[in-house]
């Protein structure tokens, strides 16, 4: 504990003026110490705020009156780099810069690259759900593969060792909570092979708006660079000579990395697009010049954080509207006499600026910010380009959320921070300013009639006179039904799962695409739409949903997101989790809540999505989703290599995942999957095939396919083929026919197992599962998505021997981080349900959101973890 005056003052300093000197700085170094601290603070009625490096305290949880500061400075355990699992674990207090340097020494980089202030910490980055480099992978939550945190209740929570999200997992609430629910004590980040080449394309334009138009045009083509920021041209004049540099008003800086050919193609593409958008000059900078440009870029970034008053003008809006918002900001700045500094972050769809008026004219700054806020909201954007629920964001929450949303946040807070140690009390919503993610039609009359109808239906169900499916026509109706069911204690199932409920809610009627913004690559759809129908809609607009390639297209979007959040992690596209920009759901209380919107930098407040994604309808039923999709790639091609055993196949899959490891040049696969028995051929030998898919421009894909073919041969493949677009799709479809992430699709007699385990242990676990099955005279069929660290296993006629198989696996896989869930019913599986503990906090959360227990528990028989 520190009570030294000078240090206390240092911890009081933030960029804002409303900070207060803390009474003590607490420096715990272990989870247990943090937990004890929280219990002590709770007993003494003291508040606390959490501090990492202090770089992001801009709008975060500031030290407020009579509080302590919990610093993570001593949570600095050395890095644990696990090259086989391609991840790194760091204590919360370790600086991002140290992590980047540590993993670079092993030939890796943090996924998507990352550029942070030198003192930013791992814990601070996770707590803010930062957007890192602003790159295509999304926010911190998309880059994480695990965290540990201590909630203010004193509970220590960590993500499962094998997968990131399950129905009882709670750690996701910590991400982006900005120190208002917990202390993040440790984070595990995904790594990617360090790219062989990195360049920055510098394109000069006459002004910022012209550069923004070009940046948006670039993303519209589907190109996904590591980052794309626009800064004032004068900021880079020191690093660039020439007439264009002297005359230009703005520079678009696009960073690209990857294999030699990919970077070559990418740089040419970006330069071409910039010239199409009338760039005065576009040049590719590498090595020393690139470094100089990067330094100028960083100092422009720092200007955003001017400590001398002014206002933050950080707003986000859908990509398509970014030029309009930028133009408006510049116009208003002129009108109010406000000088702007900072940047336009095209990849993050936001303005990251700071505005300062002359001394004595501060009122103008506030008026300027208010105008911009209005404009951003009118453009379906957000009044801030950041996450969390820090002190200064509180005022904004009522204009961004409805009362039901704020009520849900209060309930989350009540579970995790019972003694209000970290909390900042959430305001009431301004009811007039409702912002729905779905533009809903008014349905009052319909709702009135349906209210009577739902009462009738649920009455019948409660008398046991109805055990059938009911089609849900609208979220409000679903809300009414849930309320009615709640009053009568009727247990519900959603689209047939879990079986045996009194009333099944069929969401297939909620199947509309509500909005489609092709430039911003955002689609808002109702949750009952089948993935195939969504894909058809997207294809008609040149768009594509980059999910796990083998997922059954008949599954509904809501079910898919409730059951699967990894969804095929792919470099360039990220996890499914990160592709959900907003959602609407009906809780077990019958409240319709919504979260997020159409841009990725706007999730002010606690993450209500955590009640839905991967939670299997335990707390709420998803009714609509806003998704970030991708532009259909010019070419898709896959290489299929067959091996005579799983060990050889998984060795090739591992190498492909690790970028080829230099042996045959850099590989950047979009999907890496393993399956046994070639689908569609009818043959069911012992062979195992590996599918590695690439997408992008035809020259880059051709290069990857050649290199992957060589690598597969070197690794001893019996047979190698390559398939183009349609054939590739057909192959995935045939695989998908046998697998589904939702339990209902399984035939009664077949045993279905879902294995989650890091890619390096996939082969080992699948081998054990195969052996356990063959010892009982069964043959299992599997398909594994190596990037998502998940395998689906089906054992035809396996239900009768399920307990024996599971018992054997339980004994043999204890040394691995594997977790296996069983998606089939068998009475003998009860013992595997009882083995699972129910975290008390998950139970409290269930109480808050489904007090009558009418929604599914989401739990399945399982081993491991
Ligand atoms: C010049 C500059 C450039 C930046 N560039 C980027 C960028 O490119 N991308 C980006 O994402 N961000 C950027 N940021 C924002 C910010 O620096 C980062 O989000 C950073 O990761 C915050 O880390 P920190 O350790 O400094 O956190 P702090 O500033 O100490 O804290 C930030 C918030 O998180 C909470 N917090 C901190 N540590 C923990 C913990 N362990 N557990 C729970 N809560 C905690 C605090 O209470 C506070 O509310 C930038 C900031 C500056 C000043």
What do you see in this structure?
With 865 residues, this protein is an alpha+beta fold. Among the domains are: 1-191, Uridine Diphospho-n-acetylenolpyruvylglucosamine Reductase, domain 3 (2-Layer Sandwich), CATH 3.30.465.10; 197-303, Alpha-Beta Plaits, CATH 3.30.70; 312-386, Alpha-Beta Plaits, CATH 3.30.70; 635-736, Alpha-Beta Plaits, CATH 3.30.70; 743-864, 2-Layer Sandwich (Alpha-Beta Plaits). 32% of the residues lie in helices and 23% in strands. It has 25 helices and 35 strands. A hairpin with a 4-residue loop joins strand 4 (80-82) and strand 5 (87-91). Helix 10 packs antiparallel against helix 11, helix 19 runs antiparallel to helix 22 (759-774) and helix 22 crosses helix 23. The radius of gyration is 27 Å and the shape is globular. It starts with a helix and ends with a strand. Residues 679-684 have low confidence and may be disordered. Flavin-adenine dinucleotide is lined by residues 49-57, 60-61, 72, 92, 115-117, 119-121, 123-125, 127-128, 130-132, 178-179, 183-184, 301-302, 305, 390.
